[in-house]
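Friendly challenge for the regulars: who can give me the structure tokens for this chain first? No prize, just bragging rights.
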Amino acid sequence: QVQLVESGGGLVQAGGSLRLSCAASGRTFSSYAMGWFRQAPGKEREFVAAISRSGGSTNYADSVKGRFTISRDNAKNTEYLQMNSLKPEDTAVYYCAADRSLGSFAGYYWGQGTQVTVSS
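First reply, four minutes later:
Bragging rights claimed.
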């Protein structure tokens, strides 16, 4: 049993930056690979980024490579998504997710989401 709570969403201008946080509780944080998905209005949910249990490996969607950075602090039971050079197409509800491994990361536990809106 893992509970996930996202924070840090908001409104930002194109080219700006935002940092999302996901606080986990209920089980040992370091036992799970962590990551982020997003869903824009009228579009399907898509994978954004994920990070391994130790934080040593990461995966990114092609659309965010070079702009977003995922990290985790196991001592604080928290993962982060640093989003730079934001574009209007990044506008979406961002969901924190936890899964067993990075290699098959599909999301087993989910947060409730935080809205990110990027204005042009």
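The CA atoms of residues 14 and 57 lie 29 Å apart. The longest strand covers residues 18-25. Your move, everyone else.
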